[in-house]
Amino acid sequence: METLIRPGDIKKSLILWSCSYFLRISNCVRRYPPSKRNLIIVGACCVYLFFVVSQVGHSLLHQDRRLDRHQYKKSRGLYTLRFDDDSPSETADSPTGANDDSLLSSVVPTRSNVVYITLKSRRIKPAIIRGTFRPKLRRKARRTKPNEGFTQNKFGTLKREEWRQKHINGIDISWKQINNINHATRGVSSNLKMQTEPHVSSIRIYSERAPPWFSKEDISAMRFLADCKISRIHEVSHKESIPLLLFESTSHLSLIHSDKHNDVKDHKVCIGQCGVIKSPVDTSEVFAFHLDRVLGLNRSVPAVSRKFPFVQDGQPCPVVLWDGSLSPGDNAEGQSTVRMTWGEYQSSLKRRCWHRNVTPKPNSGCSSIHHYEWSKLALFDFLLQIYSRLDRNCCGFRPRQEDDCVEQGHHLECGDMDSVALANIFHRSHDPRHLVFADNKGFFDRDEDNLDYRLLEGIKELPEQAVTVLMSQRLRERLLQSLFLDQLYWESQGGRHGIEKLIDVIERRAQVLLTYINAHGIKVVTMNV
């Protein structure tokens, strides 16, 4: 008959056996001398201590591994479901109303409520992107002495008095300070004269030579516009044209074009060397000049930034070199502006006027401008989105309320597009074959989905040199190197951060233009005319 062995009997037998074994060992130890007995006890204690320490270290290592695994799960940013070995597997599927502690032990969120604190960098001054006339900030009116008070009046209501201001080409000026500048050479106001002649040139060239796309005449003109001593400031106005504000200087300047080409009448306008003062919001004039030189077009008039004491808030103004041969005269025969409608312009593109030096027939409708000049103008205007020349009525894009064509109501005259007249088309009186890019008011805040492709209509060829620069991936490098020369313009746009934003816009438009060239099969040819 088999006997059943219970688990409790096994435990009792093990305890009895261990006790009897311990008694036998203790009896044996008692028989040894005291010296050997102490040695055995010390050895047993060391073995026990070693065993305890190893067990504690193993448990701590295991715990660290579990913590690292837990931290790794947290870093992944996900919520995971974990089952403990000592908890039943049904815990994850426990019904509502189960013990919350069991739920917390099984569902462990690995994303903790952590608040990340970052230190914001110092805000850089944003670039002044010339797109619209932005409203001026309202400032508290301060009481001034009678000799310092100025008032703002609209153009057309000005009387040339000492206490009045004038609004010319978007510039609020004080004729009192201008009169002081005009009389500075006579010792009337030496203080104001010192303000107009900087000690350090704002045209900075640190290398031995200027960038290769600038000629010696360009550098000379830039230094003249930025650093010359102003002797007189006056207004120049012609029929059907906006009055210009000019400053004169007796400083020497080696002109690009000799004086013999200028009309005698122009010397009455500017006796010495002159520059045109533009509005502070027209800073794109300076950028356009550098872009023109970098692309190798060489059709823009030199322009730099300069500060004047009579301009509100001391903002730098674009200053463009005065060229008397560009200004239309009082008589219709003496005007150098090309008068042409959009229909006549498209017809001249088809006839390729003056191409290969072939003189067009008198009744062909061709102007004096060479065929390739329109291609250069179209590329230049598309990159800067200058619509005031080829699309003055804003027929090729969606204008805004702030655009000039909307304010003047021209955007409603797009029905008969062939009769729309071109504007700001200039050539020098002694050089009727080549255009001069004047009044280059570009727009940098126009998105790629609202570009004016009307500027490229009818164009079948584009200049090889300019397209090569756009494709070389070096446009940014050259523009940075070029614009760095004009320190005042560089700083007014927020330094390199602001300049980079403007170049970003031009680069994106350049990619759009290259895509347009491939899609429409436009030829890229050498245009050395």
UniProtKB/TrEMBL annotation:
InterPro entries: FAM198. The chain crosses the membrane at residues 39-61. Signal peptide: none annotated. It is found in: Endomembrane system; Golgi apparatus. Residues 83-103 are annotated as: Disordered. Keywords: Golgi apparatus, Membrane, Transmembrane, Transmembrane helix. Residues 89-103 have a biased composition (Polar residues). One of its GO terms (cellular component) is Golgi apparatus. Belongs to the GASK family. This is Protein FAM198B.
